[in-house]
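INFO batch 0412 | record 1 of 1 | parsing
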Amino acid sequence: MRAKLSTVAVVFTAAFAVEVDGPHAGAASIVNRLSAEFDDVVVYSHENHHQFPWTEDAKDAFRWRWPGVTLVTHLR
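INFO prediction complete | emitting tokens
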């Protein structure tokens, strides 16, 4: 068994916890892989994206799907 790596941070511009298209599925796949390979994963994102904002429901979906991954949102 391989040891996990330490920390990684990624940036996505919009909410993607609920996959509505290919780019959302790709982002989710990346977070799936990173969370399997790293001890500490941090996702930074724009909270108020014009098309896919991080609503409380979207944040809840993220926390449910990736309980060990930190989501940090900022107003754009």
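INFO post-check: The CA atoms of residues 45 and 56 lie 14 Å apart.
INFO record closed
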